[in-house]
Amino acid sequence: MAAAPSQLGGTPVLILKEGTQRTRGSEARRTNIMVARIIAETLRTTLGPRGMDKMLVDSLGDVTITNDGVTILKEMDIEHPVGKMIVEVAKTQESEVGDGTTTAVVLAGELLKRAEELLEQEVHATIIAKGYRLAAEKAREFLKEMAHEISPQDEEMLRKVAVMAMTGKGAEKAKEHLAEIVVKAVQRVREDGEVDRDLIKIEKKAGGGIEDTQLVDGIVIDKERVHPGMPRKVKDARIALLRCALEVKKTEVDAKINITAPDQLQAFMEEEERMLQRMVEKIKASGASVVLCQKGIDDLAQHFLAKEGIFAVRRVKQSDMKKLARATGARVVTSIDDLSSDDLGYAGVVEEVKIGEDELVFVRECRDPKSVTILVRGGSEHVVNEAERAIEDAIGVVAAALRCGKVVAGAGAPEVEVARRLREYAVTVGGREQLAIEAFADALEVIPRALAENAGLDPIDVLVELRKAHEKSPDYGYDVTSNELKDTFKAGLVTPVNVKTQAISSASEVAVMILRIDDIIAAGKLEKEEEEKPEMPSMPEF
């Protein structure tokens, strides 16, 4: 509704600009909750190993097919401010732990749905918010109590974590193969217990099948050698990383060179040639057999490098230069004059390989690479992109498992167990907050319900069986792929505990924030068009 001017002694006082839209009280809350629930319902069908995919078409007609929560929300281009808050939840979940984005968003939507039911029973939003905060804190405690410790050297368990993250994604048919690659890649770049995910480069090339995806102990650069006369393959390569151009420098200030005779022009060109030759001689003197340059390489310099049998690549991305330094042990040099043999890195093989229609440069067989590449293959561009998203999720959860050192059983087991314990805790709290904590417990069970619905099972039957099983053990979940109740920890269906704790934290915080909003003031656009139009001169009368 439009903002009305206030009355002061019969005189209207205009507070907000004309055209400002304002929604207050229960109507504002209902609108906000509805937006969050619609987004959650959109993602709900993608949850679990039997989740469905979404086809997203952007304004240019480009198609994305995925069931990755954060990708769907980014591509949807949501405008509503509450919708943007929900997108932020997914982005936070993705950046912190790499997986669980759909869980966080679906849980946030369910928490708001349960809160709406309490609001209709005249429970104040502040009471609900307090109850939700208490419940979220206890839920995180319960999850940590239920978690099983794992060792960083337990590669079998880490593989299971990676497989769980990729189950239900487009790359599922090769998940065992991909999980092994992911675990090896994470272990390679792990230093002092921390994993920098940026040091694992993912290079995509359509062609072959997903099972042709490979781990390269080094870096793959989407470039080709600069001159056909250079060797295609260099063994035991000494690698120079240059941040400077192999070109004749232009003057710092604008300058003109007046050439008045042909021999002066010849001398000028010969001097340029000598400068480039000296650069190449310095590279050769350092012992380098491969040059990877971040900037340009002059045509003449390419010719001299080829004559010396030096393999060279130009315009390598800065991010790749950082990874190459970590993989080969080389130091990035900013001036040719400073280049020495101490700055060179090592790789067993540097070669140009043709994959499909493209040439790629492989820098591999590095001695102790602290940066590696996963070369992702697939039958089409869409398949490769979805495989990349699955691999990124798997890298995230393996890194999260190594960081926290604890995992919980999957397949709905942690949500049902935490819900059971929260109901017991709610009784000890009492008051109206008890209702909010019980509502939080009910909301957690949306995850096993959604898993069952997406697999075509009866969610009520599955939930009843799970609750009964949790009277005996906290690790019982419902494996919807085999359609049976089992101890999912023993079955290897596991996920890092911080994926669950982060999802609960993110979902509860955004739900509380949305509940506390009781006034939406949307500024209207000021119409200036009429004011800005110049007055037309009046026509003279005849």
Write the layout of secondary structure elements.
Elements: E1 6-8, E2 11-13, E3 21-24, H1 25-44, E4 54-57, E5 63-66, H2 69-76, H3 81-97, H4 101-120, H5 125-146, E6 148-149, H6 155-166, H7 175-189, E7 200-206, E8 214-216, E9 219-221, E10 233-242, H8 262-286, E11 290-293, H9 299-307, E12 311-313, H10 318-328, E13 332-333, E14 345-355, E15 358-364, E16 372-378, H11 381-404, E17 406-409, H12 413-429, H13 433-444, H14 446-454, H15 459-469, E18 476-479, E19 484-487, E20 494-496, H16 497-515, E21 519-522, H17 529-532
Parallel strand pairs: 7-16, 10-11, 10-13, 11-12
Antiparallel strand pairs: 1-2, 3-21, 4-5, 6-17, 8-16, 9-15, 10-14, 14-15, 17-20, 18-19
Helix pairs in contact: 1-4, 2-3, 3-4, 3-11, 3-16, 4-13, 4-16, 5-12, 5-13, 5-16, 6-7, 6-11, 7-11, 8-9, 12-13, 14-15
